[in-house]
């Protein structure tokens, strides 16, 4: 074997090793979450989803308020963020030559560059301080801002993927612009749009940093209104992982398993959608 | 100009677009307004000194300098990008050129999962699983045998350190850098690839040619990865150790701008100027992020122009 062949061999082996090294940690993450979380949930039983968190060194309790908070936040932030993103994306796609629309397109992507913790600080400054209290509303607003870049990107792509002839056909039938957009374009692009919504939903489900200074971390009461304090599973994990108490670390692992399962479910559903779109 | 028939539609959609403009306007206003008192009081020393002396007694007693968190942000992001770059390039080459279809599909699902997994899960794993492993298998042996090298000179106390944060960030930015490099890699025209192979290039030589063809994208991936790593918050806050520390030793605990904010912003309103200092820190973070992603976007555009698609 000459030098070139040896080099090639070494290189190919190295590529395989590095590729495996790149994805190995995430398997370890999953196994650790399942291993640690499953034990905790088995020990705590179904009460893990129904009970309030434990006092230090006093059993396992549950994560009900945080779980409810996470779900409510995801819904509330979707109510705020999805219509906004959808209409902003339609605006950007429908008036491609308009300078305002071009700016919307750039800025909705640029939101991705704002660190999530800064989004939290922004909402703290514009909503929490003036209102004088943390609230589910403030948390949802922060999450809605996080969701905009993802949803707009997907919706824009989906709408642009609709062949021009459908639009022409709509106009030829004498439909108005809004009718063509909402009844033809959105209808044809619905899978892509749904995927975008799901991705946005999945994204906000696990966010932590935007909630640090907006939500109030009330882990003992289920939030009943938008002005109540709330908590999320991610915040609970963040705080309990930093406590010195063994039982709270266990609760954090159990909560991590719950969050991972929720994320996986949405991930699998959105995968199904995209597969059907692109195949 | 918008045609008259469309004007109503345009005006109906405009408010939604305006919300996005308003968000940026508010962000600029809030950051400028909130960081001004800190910038005015401490001037450039806010970024060149390492002091953290909060006081409840009054403005005259406090003194802040963000050098340590800036240093930590820089070191951890650089470690992350340096580790993630070879791994991302390898996965791109492996998936595009070597792996059979099924394995390729599997890898691409796994990388999507990595990208979407909540960061707090990485953080918990980093704190409870990765840090102890790193400490006993990497840091301690290196410290014992090579402690004359400055980066290994200090005893890894808890294991939470610059190195731990950098490595955890590397895992988190791999899917992101992978995506950037993959996009460029796929744009290299087939004729170039065929030309290289028909000259009898080995796959190693072919790889080197391909990498040189997408060099701007590799620079873009590094810059965008750095920006991502610098803005990551909660996972880093759990593993970086949270200490105002400027040390060449990678095993020492440190701080980053975002982890400082995550840990101390909630109590900051009790101390004069502390909130303002943190807003100034986030301003730096945002400016750096915008700069990096700006250059990154320009680089990616260059690749697209080169291969015209």
Description:
The complex is a heterodimer of chains A (about 280) and B (about 300). With about 280 residues, chain A is mainly alpha-helical. In chain A, about 75% of the residues lie in helices and about 0% in strands. Chain A has helices spanning about 5-45, 65-95, 100-110, 115-130, 135-160, 165-170, 175-190, 190-205, 235-240, 245-279. The longest helix of chain A is centred in the first third of the chain and has 42 residues, at about 5-45. The mean pLDDT of chain A is about 90. Chain B has about 300 residues and is mainly α. Chain B has a domain at about 80-255 and about 295-305: MetI-like (MetI-like fold), CATH 1.10.3720. In chain B, helix 5 (about 120-145) crosses helix 6, helix 9 packs antiparallel against helix 12 and helix 11 runs antiparallel to helix 12. The longest helix of chain B has about 35 residues, at about 5-40. Classes of the chains: A mainly alpha (about 280), B mainly alpha (about 300). Chains A and B meet through helix 1, helix 2, helix 3, helix 4 and helix 7 of A and helix 1, helix 3, helix 4, helix 5 and helix 6 of B.
């Amino acid at each position: 074997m000459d030098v070139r062949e040896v080099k090639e061999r070494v290189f190919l082996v190295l590529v395989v090793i590095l590729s495996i090294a790149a994805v190995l940690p995430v398997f370890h993450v999953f196994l650790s979450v399942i291993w640690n979380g499953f034990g905790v949930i088995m020990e705590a039983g179904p009460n893990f989803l129904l009970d309030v968190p434990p006092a230090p060194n006093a059993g396992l309790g549950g994560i009900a308020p945080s779980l409810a908070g996470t779900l409510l936040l995801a819904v509330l932030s979707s109510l705020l963020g999805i219509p906004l993103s959808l209409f902003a994306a339609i605006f950007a796609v429908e008036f491609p030559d308009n300078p305002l629309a071009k700016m919307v397109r750039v800025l909705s992507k640029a939101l991705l560059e704002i660190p999530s913790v800064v989004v939290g600080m922004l909402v703290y400054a514009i909503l929490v301080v003036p209102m004088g209290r943390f609230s589910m509303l403030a948390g949802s607003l922060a999450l809605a801002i996080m969701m905009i870049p993802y949803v707009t990107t997907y919706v824009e792509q989906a709408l642009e993927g609709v062949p021009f002839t459908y639009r022409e056909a709509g106009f030829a039938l004498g439909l108005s612009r809004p009718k063509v957009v909402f009844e033809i374009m959105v209808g044809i692009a619905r899978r892509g749009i749904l995927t975008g919504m799901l991705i946005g939903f999945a994204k906000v489900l696990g966010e932590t940093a935007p909630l640090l200074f907006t939500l109030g971390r009330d882990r003992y009461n289920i939030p009943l209104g938008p002005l109540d304090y709330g908590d999320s599973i991610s915040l609970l994990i963040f705080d309990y992982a930093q406590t010195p108490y063994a039982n709270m670390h266990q609760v954090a692992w159990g909560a991590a398993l719950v969050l991972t399962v929720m994320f996986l479910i949405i991930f699998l559903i959105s995968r199904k959608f995209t597969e059907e779109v692109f195949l | 100009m918008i045609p008259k028939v469309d004007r109503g539609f345009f005006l109906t959609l405009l408010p939604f677009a305006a919300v996005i403009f308003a968000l940026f306007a508010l962000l600029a206003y809030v950051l400028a307004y909130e960081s001004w008192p800190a910038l005015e009081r401490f001037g450039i020393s806010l970024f060149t000194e390492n002091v953290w002396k909060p006081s409840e007694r009054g403005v005259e007693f406090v003194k802040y300098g963000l050098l340590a968190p800036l240093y930590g942000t820089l070191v951890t992001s650089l470690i992350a990008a340096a580790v993630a770059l070879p791994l991302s390039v390898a996965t791109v080459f492996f998936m595009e050129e070597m792996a059979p279809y099924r394995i390729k599909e599997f890898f691409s699902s796994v990388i999507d999962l990595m990208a979407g997994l909540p960061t707090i899960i990485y953080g918990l794993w980093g704190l409870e699983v990765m840090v102890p492993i790193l400490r006993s298998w990497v840091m301690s042996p290196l410290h014992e045998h090579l402690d004359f090298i400055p980066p290994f000179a200090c005893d890894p106390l808890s294991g939470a350190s610059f190195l731990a944060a950098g490595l955890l960030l590397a895992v988190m930015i791999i899917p992101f850098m992978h995506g950037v490099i993959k996009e460029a890699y796929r744009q290299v025209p087939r004729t170039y690839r065929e030309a290289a192979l028909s000259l009898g290039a080995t796959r190693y030589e072919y790889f080197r040619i391909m990498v040189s063809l997408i060099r701007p994208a590799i620079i873009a991936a590094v810059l965008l990865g750095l920006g991502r790593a610098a803005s990551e918050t909660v996972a880093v806050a759990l593993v970086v150790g949270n200490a105002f520390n400027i040390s060449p030793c990678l095993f020492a605990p440190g701080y980053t701008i975002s982890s400082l904010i995550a840990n101390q912003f909630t109590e900051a309103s009790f101390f004069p100027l502390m909130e303002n200092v943190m807003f100034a820190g986030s301003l730096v973070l945002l400016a750096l992020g915008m700069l990096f992603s700006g250059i990154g976007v320009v680089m990616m555009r260059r690749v697209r122009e080169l291969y015209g698609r």
